Amino acid sequence: MAGYVSAHRQGSATLPRRRLTEPALVRWTLIGIALAFLALFLAVPLVMVFSEAFAKGVDAYWAALEDPDALSAIRLTLFVAAIAVPSNLIFGISAGWAIAKFRFPGRNLLITLIDLPFAVSPVISGLVFVLLFGRRGWFGPWLFDHDIKIVFAVPGIVLATIFVSFPFIAREIIPVMEASGTEEEEAARVLGASGLQTFFRVTLPNIKWGLLYGVILCNARAMGEFGAVSVVSGHVRGRTNTMPLHVEILYNEYNFQAAFAVASVLALLALVTLVAKAVIERRLARSLAAHDETAAPESA
Amino acid sequence: MGIEVRHVSKTFGQFRSLDDVSFSVASGELVALLGPSGSGKTTLLRIIAGLEQADAGTVLLEDSDATHVNARDRGVGFVFQHYALFRHLTVFENVAFGLRVRPRGRRPTEAVIQEKVHKLLALVQLDYLGKRYPRQLSGGQRQRVALARALAVEPNVLLLDEPFGALDAKVRQELRRWLRRLHEDIRLTSVFVTHDQEEALELADRVVIMNQGRIEQQGSPEEVFERPATAFVMNFLGSVNIFHGRVEDGRAFLGPLAVDSPEHAGQPPQPATGYARPHELDLGRADTGGGLWARITDLNTTGAVVKVELTDDEGRLIQVQLGRDAYTELLPTAGERLYVTLKRVRVFLKDEKP
Amino acid sequence: MSKSNRVLPGFRITMAFTLLYLGLIVIVPLTTLPVESITMGWTAFHRTLTDPRVVASYKLSLGASFVAAIVNGVFGVLVAWVLVRYPFPGRRVIDALIDLPFALPTAVAGITLTTLYAPNGWLGAPLARHGLKVSFTPLGVTVALIFIGLPFVVRTLQPVIEELDLQVEEAATSLGANRWHITTRIILPYLYPAWITGFALSFARAVGEYGSVVFISGNMPMRTEIAPLLIITKLLQYDYAGATTIAFGLLVISFVLLLAINGLQHWTGRRLAH
Q1: How many other C-beta atoms are found inside a 10 Å radius of the C-beta of residue B145?
Q2: What is the CA B43 to chain-centroid distance, rounded?
Q3: pTM of the model
Q4: Taking CB atoms and an 8 Å cutoff, what residues of chain A touch B144?
Q5: Best CA proximity match to B278, nearest among B255, B308, B253
Q6: So where are chain C's domains?
Q7: CB distance A284 to A296 below 8 Å
Q8: DSSP B262
Q9: What interface predicted TM-score (ipTM) does this complex get?
Q10: Is the CATH number 1.10.3720.10 carried by domain C50-273?
Q11: Mean pLDDT, consecutive 10-residue segments, chain A of 300 residues?
């Protein structure tokens, strides 16, 4: 996995009861250096996005967002995510079920393969679809003969987005499904539940937080992807521009304020993602802890 | 016949978990599958439930072949070792689950479900906890919810995997007695798996002792305890003193000990081992013949029986249990040399290794 | 105990769908790179990879990524340690903020960092007065890669520090070790495998990064042109073979890193399992 670190940590939300072992001076010096580093690299850029977006006032801000090209970029971004996220959700559930609930040869290899898109440069993620469906690609001539356009059109953007956001949901679901084991499903089966009843009444409630977590990360990547989409988009204003591509165009046209206005919407999305992520992480930790507790040997 | 298992075998990879196992459970009987971990007892239980498929052999439930019947259609109730309660459902909904997932035609009405679940919760004495979630219950309560849930679907047989394994000693005792009474009330054909010989002997009508994927012996608790068929059973059902030696002409010579062993009379002379439980040994101050001298190295007089540990001249450790009466009569002291005799010993030939 | 669980249904259908989807979305597209690279022949392949401009772009991508990973390695330990061990006001907010580089679209990061470090920017102006130019230099590339790789070391180390048994430290104290000894002899060696993993993750992510870098780098051939950008440049010039070759080289580097990281995580898992 080389693109993202999963964050199934339980402690940090409830932690600071550990006894401190460094003298206060050392402690505060270290905190100070860490915070300065984070301020420089995280906080300042974040503040600047909004500051630049409103540099020419609120009216200019809204004008940039209400621009027809901006609106169509927003629409396309939503459209692409609305296809990519559900597709990867279905894949994630399916892969999670097969991988977490069953043992079979090649299982570890399969898990590694699912992580593959994280290891690939975004640019390459776009390039491979050009090599497949471009004018000179493997299926190019056939597509041209049948007048089907994939690359430099919306289908290409959708495909590249699915590719880059592919592992998120699966890799969140697999550990959660594994942690909840198969006993509850077996119990449901013995009690007469059908396969689908078992899934919807037992499995799904147990993995819902992991699922939501994956969906939120997948969505953030799908809406924010730039490199891969940039390669396959063709950059037709109002037609094949997603929000990140629109930001690029505005920026390259030296329309900085408008670029940052659109960027601020994406930054807002990122902040919402972070908040949702933090909330769900806590839920997830709690539901895993609850499971440990119910499963652990214990007395009356 | 409630359950009949015929020639069942099962391997996991290289590991032979069950090796041609056959046994049966009469209707209304409560049978314990007893054995050390890895003996195949849980696998056997899961095969009966349909949670695992046997490589070979057949399983009959209520006299009809269930070998290829899906777990959900077998009509078995299964209580999992860690209960496998549905975490996201209340106690009430856990018990109601099996009724709610029935196909529309066979699904009871809400009123019937309510009534039935309440009745079951009353049966397991948890009616007041219906709205709680599993994580809010104690281990013993979870156990009973799991049982009520299994009973809700009116199974023909009830299977319990280490039902008391996850509980502490006191709760285990109580639940054991409670389960025995419950069984006497409802008389449901039941099989439970355990590695605790005391639990098996106390609770079951019949005990099936397993070792390395095979059945060593089956019979009533008294039978298996008093007349163990193999050295393994002898060894497994409580502590034993082991004396190595040989049999010759219907006598067993076990170190300094010599006892009659009529069942091996016709056999050629060969190595053998004698097993005697601590309460089957006697202590005295005089050499009455056929015994050995040993020094008391440890003396525990605090229980209902007095536990004496002795070491003989060859360093052999011998455990003896004396009744309180015998103790007060003898009043042994630590460090004293006493004469140990066998009231009873079982001799197994060397190839019947435990 | 390995078992194919026949009680639970749906293995065949979910497995079939998983393999089909994985194959169509990931495997088939990715095979285009090796196949195209092989069919173009060794000479063409070799010529592209030894082209000075390509070599310069690889050097920049790998070099800047390495420096960025080092910086993240140093500060990542510190940040992870502070976040796990020291309570201070706002700790939870800052903990959540660590993931910002994951969540923020790279194009937004790119234009923001460029503006921030431009000669007239908030940070660029004071730096420029001291003669330090960041935007449109290799230094700018490194800054962008630090941003993008920041969460990796922190997020890999946090759970490991949380697991760190305080009793071990107490035991060391009782044996007469002071804080410095405990840090250097016990804590840091314990964190080492996870730290290497975090470093490798951060490095791997940076090597392929595009969006956050293209704006700040200035894209001058031979000087500030990263390998992913060169792929796009070749593509725009309809030099498919060139683009494929550079991409294949980059992919091989990524896969080697991926394998190394998997191995490292295995190692870490074993070490922590006692």
Answers
A1: 27
A2: 15
A3: 0.83
A4: none
A5: B308
A6: 50-273
A7: no
A8: G
A9: 0.89
A10: yes
A11: 44 44 84 94 94 93 93 95 97 95 91 90 94 89 90 93 95 90 91 92 92 95 94 80 93 93 95 93 79 50
